[in-house]
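Can anyone check this?
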Amino acid sequence: MDVPIDRVNTVLIKHNNEKKALISILQDIQAEYNYLPQDALRIVSRSLRVPLIDIVGVATFYRAFSLTPRGKHTALVCLGTACHVRGGHAVLDEFERRLGVKAGDTTPDNQVTLETVACLGCCAIGPVVQIDGEYHGHTTHGKVGAILKKYVKPARTGKPQRAAVRAKRRVPAARPLLRKSRGGKKTMGTRKVR
């Protein structure tokens, strides 16, 4: 069993082991683990004397619950009518490209879970993205990078940064220089600038 039984029991005791508190119990467990582990659901099933299939039914009915591990951050891209018309799909495509996952998946480093929603209820500022409860209105595919930068640090791959590579390749520029030739006439030459 991967889930410490005492942590789940603490949640159950908080809700007095009452069947009517099942949704609240599941919410607290998800807040603890960032998803609903199978072992935790089995403990809840035994303690409340509710069949496991019924608990799984509740967990899968509500979109707020997840039976698989979720990322540290949850990014919701609205694809409702207003956001769709204003380019919501282009925003989603850019999130998928930058994160390397499709909607409904979690990045391999468990940093971001990307999801779509039918409406976030703020159509006037669409396309809208919500990350960890913070709304980003009038989002375009060009703003996605800046939005993600607030939540996710770039992975260190050991490769040099682009600016550093460019700096190493930079060759001093030559600029024109007027000089006098031996005959007294002004001629053009070049000199390297350091």
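Reply from J.R.: I decoded it. Strands lie at 73-78, 112-117, 129-131, 134-136, 174-180, 186-192.
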